[in-house]
């Protein structure tokens, strides 16, 4: 397991991050999430208070390497999602090297047949309860060495985890305690214990950032 300790986000260059979060070699569903030490995914309904500058740097890097972002409608509204402004500097160059278009595709998922009124301009994906993760990838035309990056929220991540559809878990554990009252990282129960393999970790004074993968079948 690769472990890197840093004292500031500036130490996380694209080259360093690329060793912790390598490019995909096949269609990949990568989940990015943040939680407190006691397993809560938000504070006052938002994940922002749990995220520091290092986490935001990783967040932007993961987006730069993604073919598309998938996010639940309630999370997009709570976190005030905006259409991607694009990338600049080293992240723009990294995205170019990945063979990806300049603009990031952001897809909002909900159970509704219509796009939420609060999210004009976003691509909308209507998910029926019986929609399989494979169908999601097919409908979004995610194929080849491409990454679909799921940014939550907890309900969508939990559904994907129960379906064993997530290939990689990029989890930031914030060194903070929230207590009861906010949403847990994965609400509900999984069908069985789900062992994961740790491949890398980035440690700061504020948080630990892990990359975990599913064991091979």
Structure description:
This protein has 217 residues and is α/β, with parallel strands linked by helices. The protein has one domain: Dihydrofolate Reductase, subunit A (3-Layer(aba) Sandwich), CATH 3.40.430.10. 23% of the residues lie in helices and 24% in strands. The chain is built from 6 helices and 9 strands, in the order βαβαβααββαβαβββ. A 9-stranded mixed β-sheet has the order 1-8-9-7-2-6-3-4-5. The longest helix has 12 residues. The mean pLDDT is 89.
Concise description?
The protein is an alpha/beta fold.
Give the tags.
6 helices; globular; alpha/beta; 23% helix
Question: Secondary-structure blueprint of this entry?
Answer:
Layout: E1 2-5, H1 14-20, E2 28-36, H2 53-64, E3 68-72, H3 73-78, H4 89-97, E4 105-110, E5 123-126, H5 133-139, E6 147-150, H6 154-162, E7 168-174, E8 197-203, E9 207-213
Parallel strand pairs: 1-8, 2-6, 2-7, 3-4, 3-6, 4-5
Antiparallel strand pairs: 7-9, 8-9
